[in-house]
Amino acid sequence: MTKADIVKELYERNYKWLSRMEASDMVELLIDTLKENLADGKTVKIAGFGTFIVRKKGARKGRNLKTGEEIPIAPRKVVTFKPSQQLKAMMEKV
Length: 94
Prior knowledge:
This protein has about 90 residues and is of the alpha+beta class. It has 2 domains: about 1-40, no CATH class; about 40-94, IHF-like DNA-binding proteins (HU Protein, Chain A, Irregular), CATH 4.10.520. It is about 45% helix and about 30% strand. The protein has helices at about 5-15, 20-40, 85-94, and strands at about 45, 50-55, 60-65, 70-75, 75-85. Helix 1 crosses helix 2 (about 20-40). About 0% of the residues are buried. The model has no long low-confidence stretch (mean pLDDT about 95).
């Protein structure tokens, strides 16, 4: 599912009071808010869906697979997702 599919779904479910442009703006606002909070290192929890967590990964040694040479990998931040119990239960039914 793409962002355009989400906008279309939101518009179709709320066609009586929401224009397609307003649906698009709502999706953009939601995504921008998520990105801003995650960029600030905050955890984003959506009840019934899951939690987006910013984790710090430490520096480590990697290896160039072609040459076998060791290369340092710098510390970085990554976003992980932990699904809620409700989402896990829905996935088990599928």
